[in-house]
Amino acid sequence: MRRADLVAECARCAGLCCVATSFEASQEFAIDKPLGVACPHLSHEARCAIHADRARRGFAGCTLYDCYGAGPRVTRMYEEAPRSDARRDAVFLAMRELHELLWLLSEAAKLCPASRADLRAALSDRVDMLEATAGGSIAELLALDLEAQQRATRALLRRVGEALGGRAALRALPIVK
């Protein structure tokens, strides 16, 4: 079961992905939208005006996007701040990355062999560290070295993969070609 705090909940968000992210016109998006510019379908109430109809209206990419619960978390952080606070977008993008790393680690912990107590402890420690980082101040989130967090997390995920048999084990699965 997926951690509840790592699930996107558009109803509890101020449309952060509709502003902070960018996309190019393609099969998934009907228009170009630059980073930091509100989608034209974002209402004054910070809600998607075409949410129920996104795919049919040319925004299938929006239906696939997952903030891993970062949107609601940052919305809560900025409840008292003006919408125009430019730092909000950067905090959202950093939090989204942290939440994705937390999700990956949570999923890896489910797969980690019980016999690998050392690896399970490393996963737990890494989750605790990322949780503390995500709970930091806005200034700390803005100063965060995301690439270092990604590298450390990927290295740990590789260790879990190796414990599961590495690439050979993955090739043996019927769904991997």
How would you portray this structure in words?
It is a single chain. With 177 residues, this protein is an all-alpha fold. The protein has one domain (4-21, 65-172). It has eight helices and no strands. The protein has helices at residues 17-20, 60-64, 70-77, 87-111, 117-134, 138-143, 146-163, 166-172. α3 (70-77) packs across α4 (87-111). The radius of gyration is 18 Å and the shape is globular. The two termini are 27 Å apart. The model has no long low-confidence stretch (mean pLDDT 92).
Shape: globular
Count of discrete alpha- or pi-helical segments spanning 4 or more residues: 8
Structural class: mainly alpha
Distance between the termini: 27 Å
- Would you tell me the overall average pLDDT? 92
- Can you tell me the number of structural domains? 1
* C-alpha Rg (nearest Å): 18 Å
Order of helices and strands, N to C? Answer: HHHHHHHH
| DSSP helix fraction | 40-55%
Strand elements, count = 0
Low-confidence stretches: none
Amount of beta strand: under 5%
Record keyword descriptors for this entry.
177 residues; mainly alpha; 0% strand
Compile the SSE list and pairings.
Layout: H1 17-20, H2 60-64, H3 70-77, H4 87-111, H5 117-134, H6 138-143, H7 146-163, H8 166-172
Give a short overview.
This protein has 177 residues and is mainly α. The protein has helices at residues 17-20, 60-64, 70-77, 87-111, 117-134, 138-143, 146-163, 166-172. It has one domain.
